[in-house]
Amino acid sequence: MHYLAITTPTLQRSLTVLVAILITVISVRLADKIRSRSYTFRWYKVSGRIQLKIVWLVAGTLVAIIVLLGTGLIVGDYPIPASRAIATALWDRNGEYDFIINSLRFPRIVVAILAGMCFASSGLIFQSLINNPLVSPDIIGINTGAAVLAVAILAAGGNIGYLPWAAFLGALLTAGLIYLLSWKRGVSATRLVLVGIGVNSLLGAVITFITVKYPIERVIAAARWQAGTLFGASWGDVRTLLIGLFVLLPSAFFLTNRLRILQLGDETAITVGSRIERDRLALLAVASLLAALAVSVVGPLGFVALIVPQAARLLAGSITGGVLIFTALLGGFFLLGADLIAQRLFAPVMLPAGVITATFGGPYFLYLLARYNRAN
């Protein structure tokens, strides 16, 4: 009975989570009613179009992230007054709460935001490129490929310092394998999805073999990492994610025009001068690198790359540079919220964040699958 008392959420925590979900749903409904207006600008040789709706959505998401960030700094097994938590995080680095804030809570929050941005951006590119709402890096094997080498290192008792590099390399090798196996006078979107699902199943079997082969004390660590967790996040992880996003997100932003052309179909894209295979390979590389970057830090955390782009496109429309930025921020908000729920809902027991994302993502994936089948 004592065990059940620990792992059962209190009424207050359950109501808090329920209210947060209701507020999110209401905010989404209100955001859907924002009038869509666009303004053209020109600055020297740079010109573009700004959509007012996207600006409001980005601003609202930023505010929501800041609210969650403040909440994450304050709440915990050791509650800290809001003024002291914020002061310690921003300028009072030698105060009483320095270790709790700047070594435990703050880096974990920032990692959640940045990793969520990586996953969501990757999922948006994959779904837009293949024109299939059921596609994401965790469905077609990119995340599982990253997990294979990482789980092998953990299960074999290797140097844990190599784990991010192993995950990154595994994701890249898997993306390259999927692309090569999908090639037949070009890459068909349908063929790429089918090959990806097959590779994902094969790599899943490899992970199962590894977990059966090695001792249980090593396998437990591998299983926890594979579920996707932000436990132990550090400022080193923040630096890794920031450097990767600084390179990859602008690349994705400037490739969105190419992606929009590819969505018109290969024949139309060729007519307007697009080199479709080069553009498709560049987009696949950027999307795979974004997923690999996140997996290398937080593990193969599922469903963020699947459901966040769907929600973003439902609110903002088809992909543009602005929609990409909004999707990335929405991914950071979603993963940070999931991690806070994982930490506090069953406190003092802390769940991996992947358990919460799967709780939301699994039913939503089944809903998408049913709707997609009816449409076809």
Number of DSSP helical runs: 15
Quote the CATH topology.
ABC transporter involved in vitamin B12 uptake, BtuC
Q: Which value, in Å, is the CA radius of gyration?
A: 21 Å
Q: What's the architecture, going by CATH?
A: Orthogonal Bundle
Major β-sheet strand ordering: 1-2
What percent of residues adopt helix (DSSP H or I)? over 70%
Strand content of the residues, in percent?
A: under 5%
Total tally of structural domains: 1
Overall outline: globular
Provide a concise account of the structure shown.
With 376 residues, this protein is mostly helical. The chain has helices at residues 2-7, 11-31, 52-74, 82-90, 98-130, 142-156, 163-182, 189-213, 216-227, 235-262, 266-271, 276-298, 304-316, 321-344, 353-375, and strands at 38-43, 46-51. It is globular, with a radius of gyration of 21 Å.
How does this model look, in words?
The chain contains 15 helices and 2 strands. It is mostly helical and 376 residues long. Helix content is 75%, strand content 3%. It has helices at residues 2-7, 11-31, 52-74, 82-90, 98-130, 142-156, 163-182, 189-213, 216-227, 235-262, 266-271, 276-298, 304-316, 321-344, 353-375; strands at 38-43, 46-51.
